[in-house]
Amino acid sequence: MINKSNVITHRGLEPTKINFFSESSYEAFTDQLSRGFAGIEFDPNPTRDGIIVFHDANLTRITSGKDNRNIADMMTTEVTGIQLPNGRIPTFDEVMNIIRNSNATRNALHLKARLQNPEILGRLINVLKKNEDILEKLIVFDVKEETAKKLKRIYPHLRLAPSVAHPYDVARYNSSVGGTLMTIEAALVLKQKGLINGVWGDGWDTIGKNGTSKQFYTRENFDRLHDASLFIALVTPELHGTSPHLLGGESHSDAKDLPTLMERIKQIKDAGADYFCTDYPEEVAKL
């Protein structure tokens, strides 16, 4: 059975809710964290003088091309002053406060590859220090080995998870995501070094080498990870089609329609997954 304690909402999205709050908005996160889900997935983004939470590195998509500025070149107040269609962009500390005042315990902080340089990672470490009282409510995922070493040295109890994928997908896509993808074998090595607590599953598609088919979310793979005492959180199959600026809108055959997607998610749960990051939190929680 899947219930709300297994579900992580994705980027404040809920496409089946009519007139729901804008993605990554303060209002969307507040609403979802009030409804009993395991947590939210969110994207820290540096400004000139702070850190806000939004997926994109620039304003192009959310302003329909009217403003192409990079968020990193703007002051925090400039970004948070932008009116989304139904909500506003929050600061990192505001999101931490929403989490602090909720019962959610598995909030997924997406540490993209571009944030894992010494300068930006140092800034993030400083803001995590301000929120040390709620670090047990976070999963920091997409971490590289060197990043994990730095974070574990300062915050040994912080839950870290690398992004794991099928070897064929690691070979095809790793350069596109800044080298954060790794195989299960590589993740098990990090576990042996005491650097990670779980994994973040990334099932890109069902296309295998030379036109064959494949599945990454399987009982065999999940058993290997659980045998190493790693939790398994993962993105559900629709997310690659709804994440902007990834690889050009690729689709996943397991997400061709909602009934197919829900049936596949049930299979993934039966295979042993622990947490599901999805655009359809209410629907998944009812499976």
- The CATH C-level name is Alpha Beta
* Poorly predicted runs: none
CATH topology description = TIM Barrel
Helix content: 25-40%
CATH architecture designation: Alpha-Beta Barrel
Termini separation: 7 Å
Number of helices: 11
- From the alpha-carbon coordinates, what is the Rg to the nearest angstrom? 18 Å
Strand content: 15-25%
Main sheet overview: 10 strands, parallel
Shape summary: globular
Strand-and-helix sequence, N→C?
Answer: EHEEEHEEHEHEHEEHEHEHEHHEH
Which key features would you list for this structure?
alpha/beta; TIM Barrel; two-stranded antiparallel sheet; 14 strands; globular
Walkthrough of the structure:
By secondary structure, this protein is α/β, with parallel strands linked by helices. The chain has one domain: Phosphatidylinositol (PI) phosphodiesterase (TIM Barrel). It has helices at residues 26-33, 76-80, 92-100, 118-130, 145-154, 167-173, 184-192, 219-227, 239-242, 258-271, 281-285; strands at residues 7-10, 39-42, 44-46, 51-53, 83-84, 87-88, 107-110, 138-141, 159-161, 163-164, 181-182, 198-201, 231-235, 275-278. It has a 10-stranded parallel beta sheet with strand order 9-8-7-2-1-14-13-12-10-11, with helices on both faces. Strands 3-4 form a two-stranded antiparallel ribbon. A two-stranded antiparallel sheet has the order 5-6. Helix 1 runs parallel beside helix 3. The longest helix has 14 residues, at 258-271. The N and C termini lie close together (7 Å). 44% of the residues are buried.
